[in-house]
Amino acid sequence: MAKVFAITNQKGGVGKTTTSVNLAASLAATKRRVLMIDIDPQGNATMGAGVDKNLQQHTVYDVLAGDVSMAEAIVYSPEGQFSVLAANSDLTAAEVQLLDVDNRERRLEEAISTVADTFDYILIDCPPSLNMLTVNALTACDGVIIPMQCEYYALEGLSSLKETIDTVQSALNPRLKIEGILRTMYDPRMSLTGEVSAQLTQHFPLQLYHTCIPRNVRLAEAPSFGVPILAYDKASKGALAYLALAGELIKRCEPERYNKKSQKKPAVAPE
Ligand code: ADP
Ligand code: MG
C-alpha cells in the first residue's frame, strides 16, 4: 500500500515543485515505485518530469471530473523513472466545478485508492493556495511534507499551515500529520538561517529533516531541460541532497527494513 504525501506550503516559490520532482526521481532511483500527482494548474511539476502538459490526452482534471480512471490517465516519465498524473490549465476549471459536486473533498482520495496497491510512494505537488484542490490533497494523504526557506516570515506561515492541517485532520482526515519539514535553498552563511533552524529544531524536533537542500543553480536549470536533477547533473550538490532526503524518508517510513538490516548476522561468524 503506497504512502501518500502532499508537498505543500501556501507560499509560492519555496521549492514545492522542485522537491516533488526530485524526491520522486530519487525514490525511484532506490527502486521504489513512485507516482507524482500534479495538482497545480501551472503544470510545472509535469513539465519538470519531462511530460508535456499540453500534449496529454488525459490529466488529473479528467480524473477529478470522473471522466477517466486513474489507470487510464497515468503516464510515465522516462527521464525520472516514475509515473505521473499530469496537470495543465484545464485544472483551473476543476477548482470551481468541484464546489458543486458530492463528496467534493474526497475525489482525489477515491481516485488514489484505485492505484495505491501498485505504488510504494505517491507524492502530490500542491498549488500555493488553500483551495479545493489542496483540500483534496490533504484529505487524500498520510502526511504533508513542507518545504520552506529559512526566512523571517517562514515560521508565521508555518503556524497558519499547521492550523489548516489541524482543521482538515479533525473534519476530514484523522491520519493527517506533518510528515516532515524540509529546509530548501539553504544557505548556512546567512545568520537568519541559523536562527530559524534553531526554532524549527525546538518546535518540530521529530519532523524536521536533517537533510537540507542547498541553494544550487543546477536545480534551477534542470526544469528547462524537462529532466530531474539526477538526469541532468547527478554529481551536483542538489542531486546529492535530494538522494539524501529520499534515504531519510525511507528510513522513517520503512523502519522494518532498517531493523532487519541491523539484525543481520556478521558476514564472518565469530569462532
Ligand atoms: P514552488 O513550487 O514552491 O512555487 P519551485 O520549486 O517552483 O517552488 O521553486 C521556485 C524557483 O526556485 C524555481 O525557479 C526553482 O527552479 C528554484 N529553486 C527551487 N529550489 C532551488 C534550490 N535548492 N536552489 C536553487 N534554486 C531553486
Ligand atoms: Mg510549484
TrEMBL record:
It comes from Marinagarivorans cellulosilyticus. To B.subtilis soj. This is Chromosome partitioning protein. InterPro entries: AAA_dom, DNA_Partitioning_ATPase, P-loop_NTPase. Pfam families: AAA_31. Residues 3-178 form the AAA domain.
